[in-house]
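Sequence only, no structure available. Ideas?
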Amino acid sequence: MIYMLEDDSSIRNFVMYALNNSGLETRGFESPSELYRALKEHIPELLLLDIMLPEEDGISVLKKLRSGNDTKRLPVIMLTAKGTEFDKVTGLDSGADDYVSKPFGIMELISRIKALLRRSAPDAEDETAVCAGSIRIYPSRHEVFSEDELVSLTLKEYELLLFLVRNKGEVYSRDELLKQVWGYDFTGESRTVDVHIRTLRAKLGSSGELLKTIRGVGYKAGDEK
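Reply:
I predicted one. C-alpha cells follow.
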C-alpha cells in the first residue's frame, strides 16, 4: 500500500489512478490530519508527500514521521512545485529518501517508486554484520550500530552507509554514489550526497569520522578514525 498526501485533488486523483493501474495500491489524503489518522491504523510501504499543504507543510509532517517509532524508517518521496536547491536540500535534510519536482512525468514517478520499494525491501541475507571500525550493519534487519548503540537512519542514509561500508577503502565520487545508491540516472544536485554524509556523521557520533572526505574526489569509509 502507498499513501499519498496531496491537497490538489486533480493531481492526487490522477496519480492514484495511474499507480493503481500499474499494480500499486494507493490511498490518497487531502490533509495531514487525515494521514495521521490513517497511520494509526496502518503503516504503508511508501509515502508520497507534498510540501505545500493545509494545516502544516510537508517538511513539518516529515519531521514528525521521522521522530515516530513506527514511521521513522517509512520510505518518503517528496513532491514539490518548488525547484530550487534550497527546497530539495531542506527535504533531504529532514529525512526524505527522494524528491520529484512538479510537473513530473507519471512514468518517471512510478519508476522511482518501484526503485525505492525494491531498495527498502528486507534483504534475504544472514545475520553477519558488515563492519567498518566501530560501525556494524546487519542488512537482514536493516539495523546500524555505532559504538554498540543502535542508530536510527532514514532509508537513504542507511543505503549510502551500507554501500560505503561494504566497499570500505574505495573512494567514490558524488556522481558514482548517486548512481549506485539512488539507483537511477539522477539529475539533481550532487549536494544530495553531501547532505546525507553530513547527517550520517552527526548520527553516528564518533564513528562518523570513519566517513572520510577525499578532497577533490569524493568519499570513502575507512577502518581507522
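The longest strand covers residues 46-50.
Hope that gets you unstuck.
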